[in-house]
């Protein structure tokens, strides 16, 4: 300790000289990054700090006017620059740990607290110059500590602890060199400060701090060298990958749209020979010149407009990339692409990649697919038109036949003829139903089917459905159970025709696929909380038929698909009924739900929102007829 006291002036001069040389070197080589500026600030502050501390010791006890002012100015600078070093080191940590996207992260908040503590401590040091808060000078012009002196230690130690917490938390992000240097820079000064409290007359803290500032530069230099080597390796790998993709990518540039500069990543060899852009400035102008020799003249105006840097920020808002397709001078199709690669601290786009790739093969195949798609759509429209026209053409003579058959049924008294006529009616109605299904299917497929809501009487609808299905159920010996909620609103507003068709399809299927047992037809309602003028009409049809296998569920709503074909081949139908039912419900904002157990039966049900015209309850639906 005595050795340090006796030689500390020489040590101070040596350390301040080292920091001065480093600062000069940094100034000559350029302060191009915030990290280098922070290192420069540390070296300059450390150099002045030790020079001030040295002069404070030299002029201590000198009672001349020069001695009086040198002691006071030097002591003020020592205190102020010690805090200044911590503040500048804080900026260095910010540059290392905080990125553009981390502006509200916890690590930045802690480092901001350090900034605030440094400002407060600097203010207290200034106040102390006039009040003697931390120290005073006796008649012999010697420095005397005051009781509040410990406060001057509390702020720096508190700041260093916060910085240390950030370093420890993000320890794994650092290289081995930087881990060691940052830990030493924060831990050793704290230890030195503790020792200096009991070693009056020795500037151990300041000498340690300045020595570590010089050491930090060496570690930082080693880290940058390692980073440069790693970057070179990555660049070589990237170049190798780009070289392998040379058949696809023709041009690739890194563009600084703020400073209008660029650097080449990949370029056509011809462009390198023909154009020598040594300064790498005027990026937009140079890029337009390069593209003019690559783009077909008919597309160049559009490409030039696309490459306008002044509108790039707006066009790339909330996007990472934008593209344009164009033919080159030889008619080969290319795709130009801007890709955001870097933002400023304020969140503005600073760098983008401009890449031009060969998409000739891709575009040819895409055009072929578009052509096939257009032909498929045309063929589908032709098929739908044919089905619609044929359905109309066939329905007309069938209606005529059924009309003539009705006359025979009313006027003939011959039992044999009446039997034949009844068979004609049954077959004719079945055929008419199939044609109507095909017509509906073609309308749905072509998008021409419309939902037409009207006011309707639910009791009338139920009566027609029951009359239609009861005779069919009775003919097969099936029990028809009816369960209608008497409080359901009677007068509703909706597409009565489509609702009738939906329920008819479900009821008809239930009878067709049930050999014994029963059919349960249920209608209830639920009130709409969000729309008090509407209700959800709940319709359910449960049967005790053969049921549906789980693997056949997907076929249920597929056009022209029939379930369990071998078992059901004697049952008539086209396989369109459920598909049409599903489409009608979807058009009305609902969907059909199915639960089925193979061999036990099925339950088809749906909920359909309907406006209420009048809240008159349904009551007994048969009372109206």
Can you give the helix content as a percent range?
55-70%
Structural class: alpha+beta
Task: Tell me the series of helices and strands, N- to C-terminal.
Answer: HHHHEEHHHEEHHHHEEEHHEHEEHEEHEE
Name the overall outline: elongated
- Indicate the proportion of strand residues: 15-25%
Explained architecture:
- This protein is an alpha+beta fold.
- The protein contains 16 helices and 14 strands.
- Strands 8, 9, 10, 11, 12, 13 and 14 form a seven-stranded mixed sheet that branches. A five-stranded antiparallel sheet has the order 4-3-7-6-5, with helices on both faces.
- α4 packs antiparallel against α5 and α14 packs parallel to α15.
- About 5% of the residues have low confidence.
Give structural attributes.
single chain; 625 residues; alpha+beta; seven-stranded mixed beta sheet; five-stranded antiparallel beta sheet; 14 strands; 57% helix
How are the elements arranged and paired?
Layout (H helix, E strand, L loop, with lengths): L1 H28 L4 H25 L6 H33 L8 H26 L3 E3 L5 E3 L3 H21 L6 H23 L5 H41 L4 E8 L4 E6 L2 H6 L8 H10 L4 H10 L5 H4 L5 E7 L5 E11 L5 E10 L1 H52 L3 H32 L7 E4 H18 L3 E6 L4 E6 L1 H17 L5 E10 L6 E10 L33 H11 L5 E5 L3 E17 L8
Parallel strand pairs: 9-11
Antiparallel strand pairs: 1-2, 3-4, 3-7, 5-6, 6-7, 8-10, 10-14, 11-12, 12-14, 13-14
Summarize the structure.
With 625 residues, the chain is of the alpha+beta class. It has 16 helices and 14 strands.
């Amino acid at each position: 300790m005595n050795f340090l006291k006796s030689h500390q002036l020489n040590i101070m001069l040596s350390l301040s000289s080292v920091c001065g040389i480093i600062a000069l070197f940094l100034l000559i080589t350029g302060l191009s990054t915030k990290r280098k500026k922070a290192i420069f600030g540390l070296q300059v502050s450390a150099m002045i700090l030790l020079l001030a501390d040295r002069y404070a010791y030299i002029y201590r006890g000198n009672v001349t006017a020069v001695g009086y002012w040198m002691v006071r100015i030097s002591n003020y600078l020592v205190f102020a620059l010690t805090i200044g070093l911590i503040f500048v080191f804080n900026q260095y940590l910010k540059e290392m740990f905080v990125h553009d996207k981390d502006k509200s992260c916890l690590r930045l908040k802690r480092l901001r607290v350090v900034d605030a503590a440094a400002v407060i401590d600097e203010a207290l040091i200034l106040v102390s110059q006039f009040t003697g808060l931390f120290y005073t000078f006796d008649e012999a012009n010697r420095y005397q500590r005051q009781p509040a002196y410990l406060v001057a230690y509390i702020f720096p130690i508190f700041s260093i602890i916060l910085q240390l917490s950030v370093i420890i938390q993000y320890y794994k992000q650092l290289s081995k060199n930087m881990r060691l240097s940052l830990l030493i820079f924060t831990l050793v000064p704290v230890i030195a400060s503790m020792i200096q409290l009991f070693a009056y007359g020795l500037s151990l803290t300041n000498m340690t701090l300045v020595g570590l500032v010089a050491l930090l530069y060496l570690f930082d230099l080693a880290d940058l060298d390692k980073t440069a080597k790693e970057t070179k390796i990555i660049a070589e790998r990237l170049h190798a990958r780009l070289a392998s993709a040379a058949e696809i990518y023709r041009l690739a540039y890194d563009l600084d749209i703020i400073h209008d500069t660029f650097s080449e990543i990949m370029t056509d060899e011809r462009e390198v020979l023909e154009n020598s852009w040594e300064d790498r400035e005027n990026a937009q102008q140079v890029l337009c010149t390069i593209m003019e020799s690559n783009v077909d003249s008919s597309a160049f105006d559009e490409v030039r407009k696309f490459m306008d840097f002044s509108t790039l920020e707006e066009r790339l808002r909330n996007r990472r990339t934008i593209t344009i397709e164009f033919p080159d001078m030889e008619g080969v199709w290319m795709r130009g692409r801007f890709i955001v690669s870097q933002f400023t601290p304020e969140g503005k786009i600073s760098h983008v990649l401009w890449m031009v790739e060969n998409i000739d093969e891709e575009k040819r195949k895409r055009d072929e697919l578009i052509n096939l798609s257009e032909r498929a759509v045309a063929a589908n429209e032709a098929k739908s038109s044919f089905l619609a026209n044929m359905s109309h053409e066939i329905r007309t003579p069938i209606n005529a036949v059924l009309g003539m058959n009705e006359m025979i049924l009313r006027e003939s008294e011959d039992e044999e003829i009446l039997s034949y006529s009844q068979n004609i009616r049954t077959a004719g109605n079945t055929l008419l139903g199939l044609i109507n299904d095909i017509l509906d299917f073609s309308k749905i497929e072509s998008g021409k089917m419309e939902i037409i809501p009207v006011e309707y009487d639910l009791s009338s609808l139920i009566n027609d459905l029951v009359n239609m299905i009861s005779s069919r159920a009775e003919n097969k010996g099936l029990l028809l159970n009816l369960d209608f909620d008497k409080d359901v609103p009677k007068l509703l507003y909706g597409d009565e025709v489509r609702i009738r068709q939906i329920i008819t399809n479900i009821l008809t299927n239930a009878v067709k696929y049930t050999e014994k047992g029963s059919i349960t037809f249920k209608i209830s309602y639920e009130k709409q909380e969000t729309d008090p003028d509407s209700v959800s009409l709940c319709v359910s049809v449960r049967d005790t038929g053969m049921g549906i296998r789980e693997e056949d569920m997907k076929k249920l709503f597929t056009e022209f698909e029939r379930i369990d074909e071998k078992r059901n081949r004697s049952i008539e139908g086209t396989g369109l009924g459920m598909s049409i039912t599903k489409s009608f419900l979807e058009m009305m904002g609902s969907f059909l739900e199915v639960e089925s157990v193979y061999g036990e039966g099925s339950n088809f049900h749906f909920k359909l929102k309907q406006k209420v015209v009048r809240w008159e309850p349904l009551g007994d639906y048969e009372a109206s007829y």
